[in-house]
Automatic annotation (TrEMBL):
It comes from Mesorhizobium plurifarium. It comes from the Bacteria. InterPro entries: ATPase_NBD, HTH_MarR-typ, ROK, ROK_cs, WH-like_DNA-bd_sf, WH_DNA-bd_sf. PANTHER family: BIFUNCTIONAL UDP-N-ACETYLGLUCOSAMINE 2-EPIMERASE_N-ACETYLMANNOSAMINE KINASE (PTHR18964:SF149), ROK (REPRESSOR, ORF, KINASE) FAMILY (PTHR18964). Belongs to the ROK (NagC/XylR) family. SUPFAM superfamilies: Actin-like ATPase domain, Winged helix' DNA-binding domain. This is ROK family protein. Residues 23-72 form the HTH marR-type domain. GO terms for molecular function: DNA-binding transcription factor activity.
Length: 401
């Protein structure tokens, strides 16, 4: 007997919810739009758009702006996002820092809190994250009923035997821990969890150099190294939400040993931890990224040696990403200080010959991210809206009119 693959349909309420999010994201992406412009942009019917706009205006999510005079007929009323219509919390947990932000519906940051941590276990981190969430709500004085949810970014990979919770680039004790369920129980707020590189790709797409791009890779250079993949207008997460774990691609066969059990992994050469190891720091687990900026400014020979060693593996990784995915660009960013990322980027030329090597390019093959060190936590804050249940970005790429 041959088994056929079942394709699940979408019930009416899910379709309505999806379409409401399509409208919200269309306006977030393009600015104030009339009903007719939204209909053209989203390919939804005029009647559907009218119904959705009325619902969203009544809910306080959209607000009418001054009317636009048309060639004939009634003047068109443009609608914009009401910043106070909704809020979301973004949380980011890493080895030394827990960061939380509140953003309004327009994406503006309303409050920010950070707390020092030391490779926290779930037992240590969960009460702290719940407390940060509570403090953010109090600090921003937001209406609790308008809180859309919590998005959380943390290092991957997730649920991989021998790689999750292993070594200095992973958080200890998080293997198989139900992060979303536990945090939701502590806060009473719906929680979405994503790896930090994917969250950073969302942040860069919404706030940085990738705002107008349909396909790009965000290389997240943190304690380890991962990639967020934004391809053909939507995020690619993989079958187990572990797509983009390029830090464990072998770039030097037989090279430096990695805690995953392999040798020559990319993040052993390009990451904060790789830099700390190359510098021979006595306590790399508690080193500060700002130290690298100071060493760069001082022309430290050990740091220059790390830069020289990191360039070729990074160049090779970019070549792999370009040949496999054909993105418009590769964006470099994360916790590493901006001058250090710029120093790495400036040394990459000449890049290897790849499918991205064309004179017809309008975007550089490699760009430095512009959303800053809060890229991941801002992306996390967008998760309650920008989640896998929300609209694909490809419906928002069509030009209006």
């Amino acid at each position: 007997m041959t088994l056929k693959k079942v394709i699940s349909g979408t019930n009416l309420e899910q379709a309505k919810s999806h379409n409401r999010r399509v409208v919200i994201e269309a306006i977030r992406t393009n600015g104030a739009l009339s009903r007719a412009a939204i209909a053209r942009l989203t390919a939804l019917s005029s009647q559907t758009i009218s119904n959705i706009v009325e619902e969203l205006e009544a809910a306080g999510l959209l607000r009418p702006e001054a009317t636009l005079k048309g060639a004939r007929g009634q003047p068109a009323v443009p609608y914009s996002i009401n910043p106070d219509g909704g809020y979301s919390i973004g949380l980011q947990l890493d080895h030394q820092l827990a960061v939380g932000v509140v953003t309004d519906l327009s994406g503006a940051m309303r409050a920010r809190i950070e707390r020092n941590v030391d490779q926290p276990t779930p037992t240590e981190a969960m009460p702290l994250l719940a407390a940060i969430s509570s403090d953010l709500i109090a600090a921003s004085r937001l209406e609790r009923q308008r809180l859309l949810g919590i998005g959380m970014a943390m290092p991957g990979p997730f649920g991989v035997e021998g790689m999750t919770s292993v070594g200095p680039t992973a958080l200890p004790g998080w293997q198989d821990f139900p992060v979303a369920e536990e945090l939701e129980q502590l806060t009473g707020i719906a929680v979405t969890v994503e790896n930090d590189a994917t969250a950073a790709a969302i942040g860069e797409r919404l706030y940085g150099v990738a705002r107008k791009l349909g396909s790009f890779v965000y290389l997240f250079i943190g304690t380890g190294l991962g990639a967020g993949l934004f391809l053909d207008g939507h995020l690619y997460k993989g079958s187990r939400h572990n797509a983009g774990e390029i830090g464990h691609v072998i770039v030097r066969p037989g090279g430096l040993p990695c805690d995953c059990g392999k040798r020559g992994c990319l993040e052993r050469y390009v990451s904060l931890r790789a830099a700390y190891d190359r510098l021979g720091l006595a306590d790399p687990d508690h080193a500060s990224p700002e130290l690298l900026e100071q060493l760069l400014a001082n022309g430290d020979s050990r740091f220059e040696a790390w830069l020289a060693e990191a360039v070729e593996p990074l160049r090779q990784a970019i070549d792999i990403l370009e040949m496999a995915l054909d993105p418009e660009t590769v964006v470099l960013g994360s916790f590493m200080p901006l001058p250090v990322i710029e120093a790495l980027a400036s040394r990459l030329e000449p890049l290897h010959l790849s499918v991205s090597s064309t004179s017809a390019r309008t975007t550089p093959r490699v760009m430095v991210g512009a959303a800053g060190k809060d890229t991941s936590v801002l992306g996390a804050a967008a998760l309650p809206i920008f989640s896998e249940t929300n609209p694909q970005f490809d419906v928002l790429q069509k030009p209006v009119g």
